[in-house]
């Protein structure tokens, strides 16, 4: 029998990594949780897994309809589904860049558009969009990925103002580098150029090193719960020490100094 006293949460991209840990943490926080994946996977205790391709409007709408048929409401949406892209900006075709945006930005918009009528009718709802520190700063050899996260920032902040009058809030969680499988959801450039080979390889090795020292997914999941349950939510939630540092760096330091620090962190030669 379904417990209709529990709030209903939907977490996209919940088959592994941050999405799975977030779904599990929401279960512990008292939510009835639905997760999505592109292929059928077995659900963990307390999590009902549904198939959904966020790049397909019909797939998104069918997934939402299934939840509504089962429980009749959706109180929380965590838009976590996303993919990465490693390589020089010049090394990606426009088609590849568009596919990245189709998942990371327009995939979020498809889910949001499907749940907003439900939340308006309920006169309540919380939407948590997964951003990144790369929504705040540039990242060499992650140019298009960083662009999608910058776009999520602008989309979410604008949307939040549009839906507040309906009792709905939209908030952002900004993880730093997180310990997940490096290969998980990572795409590589489709038109690699020899001129970038050495720097691309170096950047990939650097990313692996950062991930080994990164935050545990639980750090992000705990911040999602905080963002989901706050009575007066903030617009942005920094998940972890690195995220807080980057946000302060971007906010308070002069642009020229930020530029210099980013080159240092990415192990580039100092600017001339």
TrEMBL record:
Organism of provenance: Rhizobium leguminosarum bv. trifolii (strain WSM2304)
Name by which UniProt lists this protein: Short-chain dehydrogenase/reductase SDR
Pfam families: adh_short
Molecular function in Gene Ontology: oxidoreductase activity
Keyword tags: Oxidoreductase
Family of the protein in this entry: Belongs to the short-chain dehydrogenases/reductases (SDR) family.
């Amino acid at each position: 029998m379904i417990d209709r006293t529990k709030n209903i949460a939907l977490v996209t991209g919940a088959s592994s990594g941050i999405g799975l840990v977030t779904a599990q943490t929401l279960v512990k926080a008292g939510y009835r949780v639905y997760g999505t994946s592109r292929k059928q996977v077995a659900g963990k205790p307390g999590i009902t897994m549904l198939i959904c391709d966020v790049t397909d409007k019909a797939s998104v709408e069918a997934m939402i309809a299934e939840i509504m048929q089962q429980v009749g409401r959706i109180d929380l949406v965590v838009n976590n589904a996303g993919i990465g892209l490693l390589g020089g900006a010049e090394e990606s075709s426009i088609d590849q860049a568009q596919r990245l945006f189709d998942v990371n930005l327009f995939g979020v918009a498809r889910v949001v558009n499907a749940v907003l009528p439900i939340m308006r009718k309920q006169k309540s709802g919380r939407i948590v969009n997964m951003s990144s520190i790369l929504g705040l700063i540039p990242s060499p050899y992650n140019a298009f990925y960083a662009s999608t996260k910058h776009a999520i920032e602008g989309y979410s902040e604008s949307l939040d103002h549009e839906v507040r009058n309906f009792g709905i809030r939209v908030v952002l969680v900004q993880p730093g580098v997180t310990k997940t499988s490096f290969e998980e959801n990572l795409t590589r450039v489709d038109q690699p150029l020899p001129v970038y080979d050495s720097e691309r390889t170096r950047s990939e090795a650097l990313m692996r090193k950062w991930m080994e020292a990164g935050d545990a997914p639980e750090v992000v999941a705990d911040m999602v719960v905080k963002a989901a349950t706050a009575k007066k939510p903030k617009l942005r939630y920094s998940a972890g020490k690195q995220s807080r540092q980057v946000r302060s760096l971007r906010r308070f330091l002069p642009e020229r100094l930020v530029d210099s620090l980013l080159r240092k962190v990415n192990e580039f030669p100092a600017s001339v």
